[in-house]
Structures are given as C-alpha cells and as structure tokens.
Amino acid sequence: MEKDETPLNHSTDDDQEISAEQRAYIKKMLERLMELGIGAVYGDEENDNEVMIDHRGRLSLCRAVCCSFIFALTKEEVQKGHIQWNPKRPYFIARDENGFCTHLDRKTLICSIWEERPQRCRQYDCRQDPNVWIDWEKQVMNPNAFDHLLKK
Ligand code: SF4
Questions:
Q1: Ligand 1, atom 4: nearest CA belongs to which residue?
Q2: Which end of the chain is more exposed for a tag (fewer CB within 10 A), N or C?
Q3: Which atom from ligand 1 is nearest to the alpha carbon of 101?
Q4: pTM for the whole thing?
Q5: What is d(CA 71, CA 101) in angstroms, rounded to the nearest whole number?
C-alpha cells in the first residue's frame, strides 16, 4: 500500500496542535469540496463582544476596506436568513463583483444591515489590524491594504 504523504499524515509534537502546513491543506481541501458543492463552513465566533469605533474622518481613507474581508457566517446567522452568503462557497459572506460585501452601500460606505450585522463584523477592531492601519491615531494606512482587491 502506498504511504499517505498528505500533510495530515504527518504527526506533530502535540497531537492537539495543527501545523500551519496541515491548516493550509485542510483549507485547500475544504475549498475543493465547496467548489464541488459538497462542503459548507460555518463561522465559529469565540465571544459576543462588540467593538465600537468612531470612524469619523476615517472612511475617506479606509473606504470600508474591512467590508471586503472574507469570513463565514455562524450557523445562527445562516438560520436567521437575513444575511446573504456566497452560494458557491457556503456559508461565506456574499461579495459583489468588486470584492465588497453585498450589504455595504458603496456610495455611503455604510452597512445596510448595521443593526443585524454578523458577529464577526461586531467583533472586528481595525485599529488592531496592521493589514489596515500602520498607525490608527495618526491615520496612516497600510499601503497594501487594498492589494487583495486589485488581484480580483
Ligand atoms: S455585514 Fe455590514 S459591516 Fe459586515 S462586512 Fe457586510 S457591510 Fe461590512
């Protein structure tokens, strides 16, 4: 019998730990399954903390780039049925042809489902995200913050 050389067959020091290679392999396999219409992913939010940020004066800089990030909805959010998800990649948030969440009003850069936005959006703190801000206080954005959208 041929030896299984997939990353999942490689043991780690601690069986509870998943290596970065194994994580990448699982992600790739999940994506393949989803492309075939077999798999689905639910988000698993750790807490229900809500981060409130005063965005005044920032939207003209950040252009709501955080609303172009990919994440999966929780089972409860999918069951509620008010948030659109990508039918090709259930249950990841639906995005438009420009890569932004379909719930983002592109003119005002305001979330159209703000009161019922996903838990992930409630917890996200862009001030702590170096992919977005190099210095939140001084309003210095990461120059590569929009790169993922250019690759689309
Ligand atoms: S649901 Fe609202 S806050 Fe969340 S990514 Fe979409 S537009 Fe942004």
A1: 121
A2: N
A3: 6
A4: 0.76
A5: 10
